[in-house]
Amino acid sequence: MTETVREIPGPLGPLEVLIEKPTGEPRAVVVFAHPLPTAGGTMHTKVVFQGTKALARIGCLVLRFNFRGVGRSAGAWDNGVGELADFRAAVDYAAATWPGLQIWAAGMSFGSYIAMTAGADDARVCALIGIAPPVDKYDYASVIRSTKPKFLVHGEEDELIALKLVRQFYATIHEPKELVIIDRANHLFDGQASEVGDALEELLADFSCTTP
């Protein structure tokens, strides 16, 4: 696996990205969004890092990036509106750079809202992956309507988004779908970030958007 740091065009200027390439030919490209910037979330957040490594191990090319105003990315926090545009710009780059590959949208916490919403509304994206989704804080209507495959990972003891709320949300979304609960884990999966990577690896090792 190899990692490359670069900048890609964003709505307000460059977006800082890290691109993780798997060993061998990739089977999909995953655009991975980080947690809430105003709470310290970046593309280097442990769960994003571990998730990226896991997806690369199962043959995915992973593009994680910093939202506007984070790291070297141009712009400033925009309450989710501009961040959705940032994600779409990253998908634009992925589609143009690796044509023919499936595109999966992934994100953690606030990033899951961005990734799953943008992915649900973009015909180029064929799978939605949400880690610790804040389903009671943002409007997931596009995700609820979507019939694309959905994969959720949540901490059993998440102190910010109760597991009960995620189970209720899960009940409203269309198949195909899967939900993995990480035992004893809090919102940031402190000390258990690698378990999130393990869960993604297990969920997606044999997945393809073209699987009947």
Task: Describe the fold and architecture.
- This protein has 212 residues and is α/β, with parallel strands linked by helices.
- It has a single domain, classed as Rossmann fold.
- It has 6 helices and 8 strands.
- It has helices at residues 46-57, 81-97, 110-120, 141-145, 163-172, 193-204; strands spanning 2-10, 13-21, 28-33, 60-65, 102-108, 125-131, 150-155, 177-182.
- It has an 8-stranded mixed sheet, with helices on both faces.
- A hairpin with a 2-residue loop joins strand 1 and strand 2 (13-21).
- Helix 2 (81-97) packs across helix 3.
- The chain is globular and about 40 Å long.
- The protein starts with a strand and ends in an 8-residue tail after the last helix.
- The model has no long low-confidence stretch (mean pLDDT 96).
